[in-house]
Specification:
With about 325 residues, this protein is an alpha/beta fold. It is about 20% helix and about 30% strand. Bound molecules: flavin-adenine dinucleotide.
Length: about 325
């Protein structure tokens, strides 16, 4: 069954999945497996949610069936698994408004002006939209050498890199880039790191210079960043570092955003669901990190199970004659 767009350019789909993290991508597979058309929306420009944004190169050790799988490879696998069912991706779209039409079917409007009419919605919005904390100095170089993520480490080969931050992400990016970059310097405001000791030791062993009690006070360059000025917080002494890449790894501000105003029953910024993963709103389900129920554990593996439960229950709401159990995948033609 192919996706339909009506005469007014409005998108019509059986299932709309809001959030292209691991739970949403697995939900897309399950919707396709159930013979439903599926649209996956995410505000980020790439699928993969927290994995793609924060730890694409990290090995993950607790995905069933894999001794270890690199974040990026897990996301590629999830996208490939859903691909045969031709999901439509609306990337770069924030779900801004959820209403129900006169037939009681959900309608979602995005901040980019798209309108999606769905027979069921599955919200897999994780921690909501996560915005990187800005670097106080030099934010005007964002996208011109100043980055918050490292989707492609090879883009920084042979560059002088300054990483700002003292948490796991800062040390991970430093370790990832050190082998190929010309130089890597890590700048942190204090002498205490939130990163694991093993990560700190690894980065030191790779020859990364760690500058503590200092912050980036200025970025300079003509069209792109060329230098980072760092200033000692006590002595105020400054030092200029060559820097064609500056990575601000200062953490994220998570915000449920528009979802807060949709009338969903919430508990501590999470969506309350029942055992079917149904929310309090008709035809609206949720799965993954964004859900709340007693005993909830926020892990990728749990999100996978919840996505399967949400989509299969949504299938019975879309077609009351449909069975809840989808059948075994081993029994299907592929
Ligand atoms: C550094 C780090 C390491 C981790 N390691 C592990 C591990 O080893 N094992 C493990 O199981 N888990 C790990 N986790 C946790 C794991 O990443 C999360 O449990 C998982 O990503 C949750 O998946 P999700 O699909 O529910 O949500 P997310 O991955 O958070 O994806 C949600 C998506 O929804 C989008 N979104 C939100 N609101 C909207 C909106 N209104 N409109 C459009 N899009 C929206 C977001 O942009 C995001 O892409 C780790 C997390 C971090 C940060």
């Amino acid at each position: 069954m192919s996706q339909l767009t009506d005469d007014t350019g409005v998108l019509v789909t059986d299932v709309l999945i809001i959030g292209a993290g691991p739970a949403g991508l697995y939900g897309a597979y399950y919707a396709g497996f159930r013979g439903l058309t599926v649209t996956v929306m995410d505000i980020l420009p790439q699928p993969g949610g927290q994995i793609s944004a924060m730890y694409p190169e990290k090995p993950i050790f607790d995905i069933a069936g894999f001794l270890s799988v690199r974040g990026r490879d897990l996301v590629d696998g999830l996208v490939a698994q859903a691909d045969p069912y031709s999901p439509r991706y609306l990337l770069g779209h924030r779900a801004a408004e959820l209403t129900h039409d006169t037939d009681g079917l959900p309608v979602v409007r995005t901040d980019q002006g798209a309108t999606v009419h769905a027979k069921a919605v599955v919200i897999t919005g994780g921690v909501g939209t996560f915005t990187p904390r800005p670097l106080p100095a030099g934010q005007e170089y964002l996208g011109r050498g100043l980055e918050h993520f490292v989707p492609d480490p090879s883009a920084h080969a042979d560059r002088d890199v300054v990483v700002v931050g003292g948490g796991d992400s800062a040390f991970d990016w430093a370790a990832l880039l050190a082998p190929a970059a010309r130089s890597v310097t890590l700048v942190h405001r204090t002498t205490r790191f939130r990163a694991h000791t093993a990560s700190v030791e690894k980065v030191l062993a790779l020859g990364v210079e760690i500058v503590t009690d200092s912050e980036v006070s200025r970025l300079t360059g003509t069209t792109r960043v060329e230098q980072a000025e760092i200033r000692h917080r006590t002595t105020k002494a400054t030092r200029l570092l060559p820097a064609q890449t500056v990575i601000a790894a200062l953490g994220f501000l998570a915000d449920l955003g528009p979802l807060r105003h949709w009338g969903l029953a919430l508990h501590d910024r999470k969506i309350t669901v029942d055992t079917r993963m149904a929310t309090n709103l008709p035809r609206v389900f949720a799965a993954g990190d964004i859900t709340h129920y007693p005993g909830k554990v926020r892990l990728i593996s749990v999100g996978f199970g919840e996505a399967a439960t949400a989509v299969n229950n949504a299938a019975t709401v879309i077609d009351p004659d449909a069975a809840l159990f989808p059948g075994h995948s081993t029994d299907k033609e592929h």
